[in-house]
Amino acid sequence: MLLRISSTAIANAFPPPFSAARRSFFRQLKSPGNPFLKPTAVRMSSWLNRFGFGARSPADPLSSSASSSIAQGPDDDSPAAGQEFAQFGAGCFWGVELAFQRVPGVTRTEVGYSQGYVHNPSYEDVCSGATNHSEVVRVQYDPVECSYESLLDVFWSRHDPTTLNRQGNDVGTQYRSGIYFYSGEQEKAAVESMEKRQEELNRKIVTEILPAKKFYRGEEYHQQYLAKGGRFGFKQSDQKGCNDPIRCYG
């Protein structure tokens, strides 16, 4: 007697290792449009270091006291005449930079890395979680047109200062909340601003307030990333006073 078995019956008897939903999930995860997708080596290194398994060779720059001394030194760049610097860390620096670009009186913004122990780090180094750098935005502003307090207001409005080493789906020490001051006046204003902000929140603020250290300008493709079009090529306005919602990854 010849038995006829349908393909559906076979599929039910021998189910694939992943359901359609899970296959769809992994296709989306691997999609080039996934904003959290990083090169494999960077992702693996980041996760290994996060759990304490990252390997470091004897030649690693982290072992150099000279490298650490330079990285931990002050920001020795100078603003333009009549201008001042401010420096903030508030998660991924793309959206934070655009927010400051829109502030009247801000004359220049740069994204980069600071507060770490390695001289001249790359983006991949910072993503590894082993250098202790923070993704920061260095703001140059005209104090006649823009007060430091107004920059602090933008800083607090742009991120959640109560999540340690995390902003949304971005997790790692490079995404920590920080205000890095260039003068005693900035330090005082930052502390007072944080105390005021804490009164408005029911969770403890974890923002660090530290002297500005050497600033390492990020790779050129990171600069003004969202204003140039971001990941998907849709430019976002950097016009002064613009209050359009900021799409963090473009």
Account of the 3D structure:
This protein is an alpha+beta fold and 250 residues long. The chain has a domain at 82-219: Peptide Methionine Sulfoxide Reductase, Chain A (2-Layer Sandwich). 31% of the residues lie in helices and 16% in strands. It contains 8 helices and 8 strands; from the N terminus they run ααααβαβαβαβββαββ. The strands form 2 sheets. A 6-stranded mixed beta sheet has the order 7-6-1-3-2-8, covered by helices on one side. Strands 4-5 form a two-stranded antiparallel ribbon. A hairpin with a 2-residue loop joins strand 4 and strand 5. Helix 5 packs antiparallel against helix 7 and helix 7 packs across helix 8. Pfam families: PMSR. It is an enzyme of class 1 (oxidoreductase). Residues 86-228 form the Peptide methionine sulphoxide reductase MsrA domain. This is Peptide methionine sulfoxide reductase.
Topology:
Layout: H1 7-13, H2 20-30, H3 40-50, H4 65-71, E1 84-90, H5 93-101, E2 106-114, H6 123-127, E3 134-141, H7 148-158, E4 166-167, E5 170-171, E6 177-181, H8 184-199, E7 208-211, E8 216-217
Parallel strand pairs: 6-7
Antiparallel strand pairs: 1-3, 1-6, 2-3, 2-8, 4-5
Helix pairs in contact: 5-7, 7-8
Give a brief outline of the structure.
The chain has 250 residues and is an alpha+beta fold. It is built from eight helices and eight strands, in the order ααααβαβαβαβββαββ.
